[in-house]
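User: Design a sequence. Structure:
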């Protein structure tokens, strides 16, 4: 069982009274007010989550059912920003915390973090991020279709945009990345015919990973003459929008696990252009200072 130490909140006051009236009996007071609790108890059997409805949240709920030792655990609904605030607060105080995590993400460049091992494979292995488009996109917007079919970048590209976006807007961060990676951008645009202000809607999710990719694609499409709008929605709505033609394309689906159930539901009504990024990962994440390595190291709530 993994433990963390806690000291009773009243110890400081009690110790001062002992010092004032009883000489040097402080060691006995310290021992009586110091206790050990497990990491699971210190966390109140709670995993810090993100937006309800996110694929990551569904996978975490599945893990709570899959692992016997997670009996009685819960995942708190929050937002991505809220989760990151809680993570930062815990790390500043070197307190235990478990969060729903994924990479690429700037938090791995900012903090010393690790994934908990997942022996049952609930969170899958390496994930891909795919590009999906509506069925008639190639006929109506051949330039955009071809550019999206070519769009592919690396996890470190996405992380750089996300990191820059901590101090500037995603729009500015995407432009900066494109200007610094002009050769790659030129490959996506080479030989394509420009358009004249044709409207184009990218449907995304509210994750910072997708903010990064969507804004880079938006910037490139705008260089080709499109008037691009990014619409962030819940993952299920993203698939629905592409399937029914309300949106033109998305570079946000995480497959085969995170958004796998949504993909299976709508795969016959969309065109999948394949991976735009390989090497993504999702799972339960903790600060590296925590003395725990696996989901199975946690204990059930009695």
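Assistant: Done.
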């Amino acid at each position: 069982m993994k433990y963390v130490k806690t000291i009773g909140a009243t110890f400081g006051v009690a110790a001062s009274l002992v010092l004032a009236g009883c000489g040097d009996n402080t060691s006995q007071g310290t021992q009586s007010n110091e206790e050990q609790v497990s990491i699971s108890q210190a966390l109140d059997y709670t995993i810090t989550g993100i937006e309800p409805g996110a694929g990551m949240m569904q996978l975490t709920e599945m893990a709570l059912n899959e692992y016997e030792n997670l009996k009685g655990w819960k995942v708190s609904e929050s937002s991505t920003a809220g989760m990151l605030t809680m993570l930062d607060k815990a790390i500043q105080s070197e307190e235990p915390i478990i969060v729903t995590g994924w990479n690429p993400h700037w938090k791995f460049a900012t903090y010393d973090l690790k994934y908990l091992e997942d022996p049952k494979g609930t969170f899958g292995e390496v994930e891909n991020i795919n590009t999906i488009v509506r069925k008639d996109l190639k006929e109506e917007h051949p330039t955009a279709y071809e550019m999206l079919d070519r769009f592919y970048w690396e996890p470190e590209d996405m992380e750089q945009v996300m990191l820059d976006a901590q101090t500037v807007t995603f729009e500015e961060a995407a432009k900066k990345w494109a200007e610094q990676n002009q050769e790659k951008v030129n490959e996506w645009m080479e030989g394509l015919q420009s358009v004249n202000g044709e409207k184009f809607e990218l449907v995304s999710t509210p994750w910072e990973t997708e903010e990064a990719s969507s804004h880079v694609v938006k910037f490139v499409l705008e260089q080709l003459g499109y008037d691009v709008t990014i619409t962030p929605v819940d993952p299920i709505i993203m698939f629905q929008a592409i399937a029914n033609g309300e949106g033109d394309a998305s570079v946000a689906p995480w497959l085969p696990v995170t958004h796998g159930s949504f993909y299976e539901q709508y795969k016959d009504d969309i065109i999948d252009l394949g991976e735009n990024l390989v090497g993504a990962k999702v799972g339960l994440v903790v600060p590296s200072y925590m003395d725990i390595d696996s989901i199975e190291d946690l204990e059930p709530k009695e």
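Confidence is low (pLDDT under 50) at residues 5-34. Residues 127-279 form a domain with the Dipeptide-binding Protein; domain 3 fold (CATH 3.10.105.10).
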